From TrEMBL:
One of its GO terms (molecular function) is phosphopantothenoylcysteine decarboxylase activity. The gene is coaBC. This is Coenzyme A biosynthesis bifunctional protein CoaBC. Transmembrane segments: none annotated. Pathway: Cofactor biosynthesis; coenzyme A biosynthesis; CoA from (R)-pantothenate: step 3/5; Cofactor biosynthesis; coenzyme A biosynthesis; CoA from (R)-pantothenate: step 2/5.
Length: 221
């Protein structure tokens, strides 16, 4: 009998884009589909973990036996994640969190006034959810994602140190957003390891196995 790799472990995961309101009917978002994060949530649940999935606006079904919390904005995602993080063994940040949000959201729809003038939108920075979790006094094992258009390995190594997390997973190859397959590059203190191109569920299962191995090695007996 082979015990499941994440039996008895609690895993918290963010997925999807965020939506930053400009006014009640408009906002700024991005093309993240949430597919990779939802696949990891499913794979972790299959591996025996108790999974909490904090999801931005996506059109995906909740994986079986996964607890799902829906949010819209980066601030809502931050406020959902932070109080839960310490009670989890693993935190996986797959969400494509907006770096900036409009500094203020208009209470009413901004109207065209016919003068040809365009509104100016001032932005403010969103909190970095992953870095905030990694800074907790007793953080869960933190896994970050990196989507870069060039120099992925170098950026992933830098991101790992900057965010203070043990493992960064890079999306190799162009235009992973919305696709069903992906190629991953794992960067940790031991170096780099590629998980070859596969559908996102197969990759999610391979990644969950890699996380389980590292978690076992990092947890004091
Ligand atoms: O800094 P960058 O956005 O490139 O880092 C990506 C990683 O950090 C992803 O794991 C993403 O989920 C996480 N992140 C976050 N909160 C932010 C920005 C990014 O958790 N505000």
């Amino acid at each position: 009998f082979q015990p499941k790799a994440l039996a008895g472990k609690r895993l918290l995961i963010t997925a999807g884009p965020t939506f930053e309101a400009i006014d009640p009917v408009r906002g700024i978002t991005n093309l993240s589909s949430g597919k990779m994060g939802f696949a990891i949530a499913r794979a972790a649940q299959e591996a025996g973990a108790e999974v909490t999935l904090v999801a931005g606006p996506v059109a995906l079904d909740t994986p079986r036996h996964v607890r799902r919390i829906d949010v819209k904005s980066a601030l809502q995602m931050h406020d959902a994640v932070l109080p839960l993080a310490a009670a989890h063994d693993v935190f996986v940040a797959t969400a494509a969190v907006a770096d900036w949000r409009p500094a203020s959201s208009a209470g009413e729809k901004i109207k065209k006034d016919g003068s040809g003038q365009v509104p100016a939108i001032a932005f403010t920075e969103n909190p970095d959810i992953l870095a905030a979790v990694a800074r907790l006094p007793q953080p869960p094992y933190c896994v970050g994602f990196a989507a870069e258009s060039h120099d992925l390995a170098r950026h992933a190594r830098e991101k790992r140190l900057r965010k203070g997390v043990p493992l960064i997973v890079g999306n190799l190859g162009p235009a992973t957003f919305g696709r069903d397959d992906n190629t991953l590059l794992l960067v940790d203190d031991a170096g780099e390891r590629e998980l070859p191109t596969a559908d996102k569920l197969s990759l999610a299962r391979a990644l969950v196995a890699e996380i389980a191995t590292r978690l076992a090695a990092s947890t004091p007996k």
